Amino acid sequence: ALSNGTVLCQLVNHIRPRSVSIIHIPSPAVPKLSSAKCRLNVENFIAACRKLGVAEMDVCVCSDVLLCKLPAVLRCVTALLAVEGGGMAEKDHLSPRHSSPSSSSSSSSVLSTDFLLFYCAAMILLYVLYCYLLA
Description:
By secondary structure, the protein is mainly alpha-helical.
């Protein structure tokens, strides 16, 4: 699911809904996506990262994902989470701190970012294990 871009597109949409408008997902009838659909998913993920403000030096290229170059993909995902987390920190800085439902929701957003980072790391490790077992 990592090399076909599905998980990456879902991650971006979880961070910012509708960042990727079309995600090609395998179906039970056709469990493996074509290489063209995989490439489209990855290109949509990369475009969304750029749109959300990930620095160009941190953005992975399409071949990094398709060829499972995990360090580059992890750098991109980490930068995406940092950019989105930085946007939340700026919003928190502008608003006064007091005990209200909005301040508790900002702390749950931080937990959500930490969870997304954990989720991506777990998916990458599972994919590496899967590739190792196939070899």
